[in-house]
Amino acid sequence: MNTPHTVLVTGGAGYVGSHCVAELLDRGFRVVVLDNLRQGHRAAVPSDAAFVEADLADMDALTRVFAEWRFDAVFHFAALSLVGESMRDPHLYLHGNTVNSLNLIRAATTAGVRKMVFSSTANLFGTPERLPIDEETTIDPGSPYGESKFFIERALHWADRCHGLRSACLRYFNAAGAHPNGTLGEDHAPETHLIPLVLDAASGRRSHIEIFGDDYPTADGTCVRDYIHVCDLADAHLRVLPALETRSVRFNLGNGTGYSVREVIAATERVTGLTVPVRVGPRRAGDPAVLIASSERIRGELGWSPRFPDLDSIIGSAWEWRRRHPGGYRGPAVAQAAE
Predict the structure, then answer these.
(1) Helix (H, G, I), strand (E, B) or coil at 225
(2) How would CATH label the architecture of 6-176+228-252?
């Protein structure tokens, strides 16, 4: 393959995007990060990467970026991504995510870019008819957030047909964990993901973790979800580049193993040695009992497999990040994690 040398990463100051930037730099790419910093953190962008603070809604800024650099590929992470918020304000997601991505696609095709790797979502599949969720599962988005990602996938389909912009759309559920070197991790405001919330409950930053329903048809009555290490996601985003030499691709990503809420809590106590205070509340509307994504296609076609497949490794890396960065990117880092 002709290895791309200079790449653009939108949303590269965010959680998954910043880990992809680190992986790209480790593999010798020149990286330009574009982020509006509304959800991302400037401190998450390595000094080896060029940084542009701009919004995808600003077409003039996009035009300048594509004029200044010649990109061999674009990695597109920038998006609003809260499912609950999208249910409360669907227009914000259906319009904002879609139009901003259309701006990026237009700028890329105008500049002659031929490859785009898109961070999509397994929320495309809503409540699926079978598990694990493979690429042939009926697309029926479970939220306006998922619908916006599907709109973008369709736009990329036509960008390939009409302009030759080949794309890889990667669909996954729960990114988790942190970089093994302790420099990058998960820092959202507000935090909505289960593993960092459970870690906060273990460390006393939260009074407790609430389990939303313990009467589901699962082994312990709590919802089962697929958690995938953020560095494994970054590896998958790079691994699809050779395929884009000849075709566009769509892959689902998952560990293939689901873990219940109670299993996450038990693993957190095991890893940290701390007790997690728990309260059981009512179910949340629309929560399926089990959601697990299949990754058999990308494993078979591209040889991808998780390097951190077990729950203890995922939670352990997230815990190390939180010990080293108790204030997240906003606070000072601890030079050495406490023993």
Answers:
(1) strand
(2) 3-Layer(aba) Sandwich (3.40)
